[in-house]
Amino acid sequence: MVMQYHLVAFVILLVAVIAVFAFRSSTDDSQVQEDFDRFLNEPMSPRQAVRFYERYVGHKYENQGYDVSYLAGLKGHVDQGRDIIVKTPKEILVIQTRAFGRRRVVHDNDIYQLFGKMTHFKLTSVDPNRTTRAIFYSTSNFSSLAKQAASTLGVEIRTEKFNRTYPMIKCSVSPTGEKNYYLPFDPVYDRVKIDHKRDEHFVRTVHQAVKKGFKRAG
């Protein structure tokens, strides 16, 4: 009887500990979601808007399974005018992004600069199996001279707005199998690459990340 009593007491204690741990974990995740919501809803500075747009554009390619490097996020002002490098099976895309106000436009000299940077990249990064081309994304319009320059030089131009609701939480699996999720304000966010073949994902909420078995990194 005494042994049974101790066994029952141990089980009750174990259940209580698990419940407390689960409650704390749930509370922590809720706090992280609140921090993330605050990040999404706060007014952005011009610099933050630029970074946000770069990530938005890069996500379009990451979500297709391509290798994406965020040079501006990793190297800052020494990115040499190339915000993003995308590697597909057949191409290397040198991408420049601009997040402007409504009255700003992209000018022809911006196109010339991107073409020059793309050419430099092509000459210094030997990859005989892929062609290299340039794409310029902007939230605002391109001037008529910019359009002419782009057409002449073969630079693709795209005017595309962005929103703050795309799935940007990165769910990544480490080499040791640890499943972590990363938020845009995490220091290593731009270094984390998502590989869909390894059961890695982009999700919109912390709850979705936790439901898939990922925990907060760090």
- Oligomeric grouping of the chains: single chain
CATH topology of the largest domain: Trna Endonuclease, Chain: A, domain 1
Largest sheet: 5 strands, mixed
CATH C-level category of the largest domain: Alpha Beta
Shape: flat
Q: Name the helix and strand elements from N-terminus to C-terminus, one letter apiece.
A: HHEHEEHEHEEEEHE
Mean pLDDT rating: 83
User: What is the total number of structural domains?
Assistant: 2
Instruction: Supply the number of helical segments.
Output: 6
Strand content: 15-25%
Query: How many DSSP-defined strands?
Result: 9
Distance between the termini: 46 Å
- Rg over C-alpha atoms, rounded to the nearest angstrom: 23 Å
Query: What is the share of helical residues?
Result: 40-55%
Spatial order of the strands in the main sheet?
Answer: 1-2-3-4-5
Low-confidence segments, given as residue ranges, are 8-26, 74-81
Structural class: alpha/beta
For the record, the CATH architecture of the largest domain stands as 3-Layer(aba) Sandwich
